[in-house]
Predict the 3D structure of the following.
Amino acid sequence: MATMTTNPETQTRTEQQTKRPWLWNVVLLNDEAHTYEYVIDLCQKVFAHTVERGHTIACRVDKQGRAVLLTTHKELAELKCEQVITFGKDHLIAQSKGAMSVIIEPAEFGDGDEPVEKGGDAGGTAG
């Protein structure tokens, strides 16, 4: 078996730098036509969040006007945004005409990871 030797002086090494994919937040926006139950159900069915996480998100969107649902790559963020839009209206509120508003935005770490204030009326509206 032949052994191959390389001259380190002539060998060029190309280092591949792996870039982290740009991350995007899927952000739910507040309104007055959806209940906490709707937000919790949406979080469970579209994002596989627990009831507790859904309640935390409902509290955040109610108190702060917006809540990060997910941080992911752009293609999945766009898909999840479409799934929120097609989730439909809140059948517990007569004036609900459709889904809640949702946007995607470039992620800035720390923005969506802060603890959410506990409390709020679980039976009230999320907006």
